[in-house]
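Format notes (please read before filing issues)

Several people have asked whether sequences and C-alpha cells are stored in separate files. They are not. Every record keeps both together, in the order shown below: the sequence lines, then the C-alpha cell lines. Line labels are part of the format and must not be stripped during preprocessing.
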Amino acid sequence: MDDFQIKLELSKLENQIQELENKQNGVKFNVAILQQSMEKLQQSLEKLLKTLATNLDLWYASTNTNTEKDEDEQTDKSKCH
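Then the structure lines:
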C-alpha cells in the first residue's frame, strides 16, 4: 500500500468518524428532547392526580355528609314510631 492509498483510507475513516459523531450528537439532542417531554408529562400527571384526589375527597365528603344526615333522619323517624 503506497502513501496515496494510506491517505485515501485515512480520509475515508475520518469521514466515517465525522458521520458517527454527527449521528451521536443527533441522538444526544433527541434524548434531551425526550427527557424534557417526560418531565413535562410527569408534572402534568402529578397535577392531574392531585386534582383527581381533591375532587374525590370533595365528592366523598359530600356523599359521606349526606349519608350521615340520612342515617340521622332514619333514626329520628324510627324514634317517632
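For reference, the curators noted about this record: The longest helix spans residues 3-80. The chain has one helix and no strands.
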